[in-house]
C-alpha cells in the first residue's frame, strides 16, 4: 500500500512543468531567448548611458562634434596640406572625415566596452540578466555618437558642394560592417578585461596605435600593391575603404580582395567574440 | 495539494581559493611572469629543485560554499533561510537568482523569480528619481507596462514626490533608500527572493517595509527570505531552513528550526547576549555604573530565548560608589527600536537601594509580547521620590532576548493575522 501511494505521488510530481531549470551549463540553451526577454533592460541601459553621457559634460552634444572635427582638421593640415598626400580626388577634409567617422565609432566602442563590465560590477553581482547586454549597450551609445558626428559630414558636403553618387546608398551596409567590427573586438576586450584587470592599459594603446596604422589620415592606395592584401588584415582597413568608396563615389577605388579579407576577419571576430564572451560570462559574478 | 515552486537537487557550488596571490584580480602581467618563471625553473632545475616547482602548482584550494543541498519549496510558502555569516546563505541566493551557476546539481523553478539582494541596484546618481524608477524597475525585471501601471503607487510609497525630477545624488540617504525600496516593493513576481534588505532607513520606514513584506507573503506568493534576524524570520516565514558550512542542518516549520538553531547556536549566541559585560571605555568618567547583566528564565537557567508569557530575570552588578540611595529603571525596545515597556523600582514601587548594594535582581513578566527580538536598556537613578532625581548611568542595549513562540490562544492560526506589539486578554460572547 505504502509503496503504491509513493509511486503515485512520484508520478503526479513528474507532471509539474517547471519554467526554468538552473544547472551547470544550462544558461547556454535559452540564452538568446533570455536576451529577447531582457530587451527592456537593454533599452534602459543604453538610454541611461546616453543620458548620463550628455548630462555629465556641460557642453554635452557639442563635445561629440568637436572631437571628430578637430581630428579631421589636424589630419587635413598634416597629411593634406603639409605632406600633400593624394585624396582620391575629393576635398581632403571630406576624404579624412569619411574615415574619422567609422574610426571614432570603433575606437569609442572599444574603450567603452572594455570598461563597461567593471563599471557595472554592482549590477552584475546583484542581478541576473544576459551579460552580453552591457557591452552591447556600450556599442549602441557609441553608435549614437556616430550618428551625431554624421551631421558634420553633411555639413562638410554642403560646404564643399560635394554631391555624393548612388554608391552612398550602400553606406548603411558599411555602417553595419563597422558595427560588427566594433562589437566583435569590443566583446573580446570586455571579457579579457574582466579576467585580466591590467588589460585596460592595453586598450588605449590599441586605440592610439590603430589610428596610425589604419588609413584614417591617408589613402590605403598609398600602400604598395603587393602589401595591400596583407594590410587588410587590419579589419578597419576594409571598413574605412568601404566608407570612402561609398561616400566619395567614383573618385575612390576599392581593393576588393582586401575588402573581403577584412569582412571575413570581422565576421570571425564577431563570432569568436560572442563565443569567448559567453564562455567567460558565467564566471563574471565570481570574478568581479 | 500545493505544487512545488522551487526544487533544489544536490546543489553545490565550488569556489577556488588562490593562496599564492594576495591581489584581488588576476593581472595579465602576473600570468605572464608566473608562466615564464615556471618555464624557466622547469628548464633550469628539473633535478635540483623539483620539490619547489611542484609546490608552485599546488597553490589553490577548493572551497565548497554549497555542498549537496536538496529541498523543495512549495507554492505560497514563506521560507526563511538562516545561518551564521559565511554559512552559504548568500551563495544560495545568488545561485537561486541566477547570478552565478551551481557547479553541480539542478534547481527547477516554476514561476517568475525576482530577487532583491540589495535595494537600489543600478541607481545612477546623475539620473532623476523618475528616471531611476524606470531604470531600477527594468533592472529588477519589470516590464515597461508594469512600471507604468505601478508608477504612481511607487511614488506614493516612497514619499519623495516633490523631488521626483531632482537627480538622486542630491537626495538624503533616507530618501534614496525609500525610493529604492519603493520600486522593489512593487515587484509582482510569483517568487520573491529577499536578502536582508530590511535593515535600511529609519524606524518608521522599516516597519512600513516589514508590513509590505507581510502583504506580499499573504497574497499567496512564494517568498524566500534570508536573515540573521530571528524575530523577522519568525514573524514573516512559516517554514525555515538552517544552513551551516554549505549544508542543510535542519528544515521544517519556522518555530522548530529557529528554536533548534538558537539552542545549538547558544555558544555563539550567549557570548554576546546571555551575559553582557560593559565596555570599559564607557565608564571612564563615571563614579557609579552598571558593570554587567545576566539573563535567566524563571527556573534560573541562563537563556535569552523565551516564549510568550514567560518571565525573565535580570541580575545586575554595579560598580563604583553612589553618594546616596538609588533606584533602577529598565526600558524595553522592539527590533524596530520602538519603545515597548518601562519599569522603575523607585517611581513605580518606591523601592530604593542602599549605597552599599552592588547586586540587584529584576524579575520581569509574564511578558505579553509577540514574537521578535527585544533589547533592554538599563539605568541607575539617584535621588528619592522624584525630588532631584537624575539618571546617573544609562546602558543602552545592555542585553537582548527573543520571543520565539507566541501562541496565547488555543486554535489560533498565526498565519491569518498580523501580530500586534502585545497580546491582551480578551473574551468574546454574545450580547443580548
Shape of chain A: globular
What's the tally of helices of chain A? 13
Shape of chain B from CA axes?
globular
Distance between the termini of chain A: 54 Å
Q: What is the CA-based Rg of chain A, rounded?
A: 24 Å
Largest interface: A-B, 43 and 47 residues
Oligomer: heterodimer
Structural overview:
The complex is a heterodimer of chains A (288) and B (432). Chain A is an all-alpha fold and 288 residues long. Chain A has one domain (38-281). Chain A has helices at 2-14, 31-37, 39-56, 61-82, 92-119, 121-126, 133-159, 171-195, 202-213, 225-231, 235-248, 256-281, 284-287; one strand at 20-23. Chain A is globular, with a radius of gyration of 24 Å. With 432 residues, chain B is of the alpha/beta class. Chain B folds into three domains: 20-58; 65-268, P-loop containing nucleotide triphosphate hydrolases (Rossmann fold), CATH 3.40.50; 274-405, Distorted Sandwich (Coagulation Factor XIII, Chain A, domain 1), CATH 2.70.50.60. In chain B, 27% of the residues lie in helices and 34% in strands. Chain B has eleven helices and 18 strands. Chain B has helices spanning 28-44, 50-57, 89-96, 129-139, 144-158, 173-185, 203-218, 230-236, 254-264, 266-272, 345-349, and strands spanning 4-18, 60-74, 78-82, 104-109, 113-116, 191-194, 222-226, 239-244, 247-253, 275-277, 288-297, 305-307, 312-320, 326-334, 339-344, 359-364, 372-384, 387-405. A six-stranded mixed sheet of chain B has the order 5-6-7-3-8-9, with helices on both faces. Chain B is globular. Chain B starts with a strand and ends in a 27-residue tail after the last strand. The chains are: A mainly alpha (288), B alpha/beta (432). At the A-B interface, strand 1, helix 3, helix 6 and helix 13 of A face strand 1, helix 1, helix 3, strand 4 and helix 4 of B.
